[in-house]
Structures are given as structure tokens and as C-alpha cells.
Amino acid sequence: QSAVNVPRDFEGCSTLRKYFGQLHYLQSRIPMGAEQEAAVPIVWTEIFSGKTVTHEDIKYEQACILYNLGALHSMLGAMDKRVSEECAAGAFTYLRDHFPHSYSVDMSHQILNLNINLMLGQAQECLLEKSMLDNRKSFLVARISAQVVDYYKEACRALENSETASLLGKIQKDWKKLVQMKIYYFAAVAHLHMGKQAEEQQKFGERVIYFQSALDKLNEAIKLAKGQPETVQEALRFTMDVIGGKYNSAKKDNDFIYHEAVPALDTLQSVKGAPLVKALPVNPTDPAVTGPDIFAKLVPMAAHEASSLYSEEKAKLLRDVMAKIEAKNEVLDQFMDSMQLDPETVDNLEMYSHIPPILMEKCAALSVRPDTVKNLVQSMQVLSGVFTDVEASLKEIRDLLEEDEAQERKLQELLGKVPPAQGSPPPPSLGLTEVSKECSKYMEVHEKASFTNTELHKAMNLHIGNLRLLSGPLEQVRAALPSPALTEDDKQVLQNLKRILAKVQEMRDQRMSLEQQLREMIQKDDITTSLVTTDRSEMKKLFEEQLKKYDQIKVYLEQNLAAQENVLKALTDANVKYATVRKALAEVEHKWNTTVQTLVASYEAYEDLMKKSQEGKDFYTDLEGKAAKLLEKARAACQAAEANRQQILEKEMKKQPPPRPTAPKPALQKKPPELEAAGLDAGDLPLPLGSLVLPELPEELRSL
């Protein structure tokens, strides 16, 4: 009740600290935390919203007391003389670092950061004022002032947070404006004293730029100070008189006396802040602050303190052991990475003893379609038959055309119009011209399609064997897959390598198990009961005795870590012998994978082959029909041309003049068989035709 209605003086701070300490003693003995058996409702009001907040958690009570302690310290600091570097940030810092931020919005991380930096900044202001009154060195004063700027910049960042802005409402803008004004003001003070230091060092160019920067920042502060109290305005005017006078004097002296170059401000070293203020520490177990523990008879506080010290000893032991484990693990990991040895796949021999699932899937699919290969072969045979028929028809057409052309040429020679074997062939008839054009077109299409047909047959021949294999017994499929042929020595090398890799894994597992056992032992190791009955002077001895329980597991871990060097040496030797086997296995694995991929590709190509085969059949069936029609047309045209040639020849014979008288024939001259059969002599024929009986005529012209 006293803590809730605390007086606003240092006695009130003492009351809050005592209550906070007693709450700490209480919660270490009685389960009053969130969802614990003795938890009770804790009710407080948020400072900004005025809303009532309730939590069944004793830590919420502690957090609210800490917040009020910080708030009360800040109020007392505002009333006190500005000579102390102690500040109210300690309570807010302890609250931020040791308690959840979800209790209420005024305890959010951003609000607490704002409070902490506002308190630190104001405390640093007090120290700055004191250092200026004590005439400290200019550089030290500049650094102290720069630290004020740093604290207020952190506070400004917290104010600019959207969560903070929505919580604070209107005062957020006022606070932000005031904090920004202070940032510029104390930056001006820092550069004023940097200018004074440059003056002491007779760096007159630097002095000018520092004073000029101080003047610029002070002008910015004055702009932001509108609406501030008269005391603030008066301080700003006084500072303007000081800085303005310093700047004008420095500039005049440099222009007329020193003539030093004025450097750019960003070329000079920035002023690093010097944090010299300290937050009032919060120690919930300090009896000088909390008073005597009113729950001491439940469990002596000394036992808790000693237990905490013992926990630190356990933590130190764990850190030492873990440092050794992590160092060894790092070496082991790097070594195994360089070896690239996976114990699970170091030989892959198991892989070759069965058909892979993807291939089994293809075999199963073909087993329910037993006519797959037969259908493909038949389809390709039909395609080949149609292809051959088309090719035969086109060849016959071409032969007819060539024969007709030859007969036409012979006729022309017979009639004396074209010298034998000279000139271009005689023009064909209109019907044959059309046949020739269509034939050329079909031949061109056929040649293009012939290439596709050839490629299709190649693809079929490539895949048909694989499809037959996949359709057959599984034993044949398994036999078709490559497998390594290892000698007894190779197998011994593999077994040795796998044995050592198993040792490596065993070493890892044992190490992890021992580490886990150690952690669990430390976690469960609570000697509070023993500490209650132990005299303080005997605590160290008790710790030593209790820590001996970890000696055995430490020995096991040391042995495990020491064995690593020998295991890795053996692994190195085994890996050297494994190199040749590894290469051979890698080659076989590559072939095995390639074979599997090829078989899968053949299965997947089946549907495409069938589709293209059907397309080829459709194409050639259509072309066959067209070629057959063209063949009939060619035959008819050739017959017409032949009849026409006979008519021409008959007309030519009728046009010849009657035979002239001839001299008596030589007695020994014999008639050619052709003339004798016709009852004629050679002289009885016209001169142009008479010469034709001497050479052997083609069969088709002999009847003429």
C-alpha cells in the first residue's frame, strides 16, 4: 500500500526499492508467476492511455514498481540541482532488459528506450554544465556535449517510431521538436568548444569553420525553439552572443592577420561523444536497499546467492568442455568435407542389386500392353510398304516419260529434223508436260518425306530393342544394367573404408551423447537444499565436491576427442587405397545412370514413334493415291503420243516421190532381209528412207 501511494521524495524511492526487493524474495519462493499456482490478479493503469491493465503475474507488479521508480527519480532529478551525474535511467534499463515488453504499451521497447535516452541525455547535460563551470579543457567539454547529442538522437529515433507516435499523441510532436532543438543546440556547443580548442592549438582556419558550424546549428535550434519558455529563449540569445562574437572575431583575424585556408567541415575529424553519466543501479537482492528479507525463514537468501554462484561454476565447466568439442568438430567437419566421403553411398553396391523404381514403373506399364513392340513394328512395316509402292509408282512414271522422250527423239531423227545425239530433247505433248510437272512435284515431296521416313526408321531401330527389353522378363532388364566387377582386394578395401567411416560416425554420436548427458546433468544439478545447511565458509569446498560428479563424463569426452586424430589418420590411409576403386565405381555408376536414362527415354519415345508412324502412313497413303492416278494419266498420255507418232510417220511416207529407175543391180548384191520380206529393193525406197534400212532399227520401228 505504501508503494502504491508513495510520497514524491527520496523516501518514496526507498519505499519503491524495498517493495521491489521483497517482491523478488517472494517470487523466488512462492509460485506467483504467470499461470502458476499462487498467481493473483495485478492491476495497474497505463500512464498515457489511462486504461486499466490486469495480469496474473508477480513480475507485472515488479515491472510497474520499476517504472514508477524511474519516473519518480526523473521528477526528483528535475527538482534537484544540476550537479549530479546519477540519473533515473537505471530503473528503465533494468525494466527493459529483465522483463517482458508485452505487459502494456507504456512498457514497450521503444517507450523504454525513449525514457532511458531522455534520462541519460539530461544527466549528461548536468555533467556538461558542471564541466563548463569548472573550466575543463575545451576538447573534453566538446566530447561531453557531443554525447548529449548522441543520447537525444537515440531518443528522437524512438519518438519517430509509429508505435510511439500513436501512443503519445499530441505530446509526441512537442517532445520531438524539443529534442531536435536540443540536438542542434548541444551540437553548436560541441563545435564552439572544438573551435576554442583549435584556437588554443593556433589552427585559425579550423577555428573559423568550427565557429561557423556552431553558428549554423544554433540558428537551427532557434528556429525550433519557437513557443519555448522565456528562459530557453534567453539562453539561446546569450549563446548567440557568445558564438556570434567568437565567429566574427575569428573570421576577421583570419582574413586580416593569419590568412589560413578554411577547411571543409566534413574533412575534419568528427567529435566522438564521451558517455560519463551512470544509471542508478538496481539490485533486487541488496539488503542495504531492500532491507531484511521478510521471507528469510522460508529459504535463506544466502542459499539462493550461493546457488547462483554454483550455477556459474557449472556454466564455466560447460563452456570449457564445449570449446574443446567445437574445436574438434570443426577439424572433423573440414576433414570430411575435403574427403567427400558419404558413408551411405561410399560404394553404391546395393543400387545394382535391383531395378530402380522409375524403370520398374516403365516395365509395369508395358506389361499391361504386351503388343507394344508388335504394334510399332507392324506400323513401321505398313509405312515401309506404302513408301515402296509410292516409290515404284513414281519410278514407273519417270521411266514412261523417259521412254516417251527417247521415242520422240528417234522419230525426229528419222524425219531428219534433229541430228542424232545433238540439241535438246523435243518438246513433249501438253498431256505429258502436265504429267512431268506433277511427277516432279511428287518426287520432290517424296524426297523430303523420304528423309523424315529414314530418320523415323533410325529412331525406331534405336528404341525397338530397348522396348523389347522393357517388355521382357525383369531378370533380363536387371542383367542389361551395368554392375561393378570388383575383385576380392577391391571388396576388402571397401569394407575397410566403410568400417572406418562407421567409426567416425560412432565417434560423432558418442560425442553428441556425452555432450547431451553433460548438459542434462548440469540442468538437473540443484544443490540448494545442501546449501541451506552449509556454513558460508564451507561453500567453496562444497562446490568442489559437487563438481567432482562431472569428472567421469569429462574423462569419457577427453578420450573421445583424443581418439579423433588416430581415426582420421586411419581414414586417410584407407581413402588412398580406395582411390582406384572409387574411380571404377564412379564409371560404372555413370554407365548405369546412362543406361537407365536411355531405357526410360525409349519408353517415353514410344507414343511419339507411333504417332509419327501413323502420320507417315496417312501421308504416303494420300501420296500413293495421287501417284497411282498420275501413273494412269502418264500411260494414257504415252499411248496417245505413240499413236500420234505413227500417224506422223505414215504421212511422211505418203509424201515421198515415186521411185526413180535405177541401174541394174550388181549380181552379187543381196537384198536386206527387210526389203526381201516386203518384195522391194533398196533402190525402190526414197533416198532419205533408203539409208534407214542399213542400221538395226528399234523393235517398235521395224514394222514401219
Question: What are the defining features of this structure?
Answer:
704 residues, mainly alpha, Serine Threonine Protein Phosphatase 5, Tetratricopeptide repeat, 3 domains, two-stranded antiparallel ribbon, disordered C terminus
Order of strands, main sheet, comes to 1-2
Class based on secondary structure composition and strand pairing: mainly alpha
The main β sheet shows up as: 2 strands, antiparallel
Mean pLDDT comes to 81
> Per the principal axes of the C-alpha atoms, what is the gross shape?
elongated
Kindly estimate the percentage of residues that lie in beta strands according to DSSP. under 5%
Rg, rounded, reads: 56 Å
Poorly predicted runs are 418-424, 667-704
Structure description:
This protein is mostly helical and 704 residues long. It has three domains: 1-107, no CATH class; 138-277, alix/aip1 like domains (Serine Threonine Protein Phosphatase 5, Tetratricopeptide repeat), CATH 1.25.40.280; 334-418 and 432-518 and 547-653, no CATH class. Helix content is 71%, strand content 2%. The chain has 22 helices and four strands. The protein has helices at 10-27, 58-79, 89-98, 109-133, 138-160, 162-168, 170-200, 204-224, 230-258, 287-290, 301-339, 357-367, 372-414, 430-471, 474-480, 488-524, 528-532, 539-547, 551-655, 673-678, 687-690, 699-702, and strands at residues 42-45, 52-55, 86-87, 278-279. It has a two-stranded antiparallel sheet with strand order 1-2. Helix 3 runs antiparallel to helix 4 and helix 8 runs antiparallel to helix 9. The longest helix has 105 residues, at 551-655. The chain is elongated and about 165 Å long. Residues 418-424 and 667-704 have low confidence and may be disordered. Keywords: Coiled coil, Cytoplasm, Endosome. One of its GO terms (biological process) is early endosome to late endosome transport. This is PTN23 phosphatase. Its main location: cytoplasm. Residues 1-332 form the BRO1 domain.
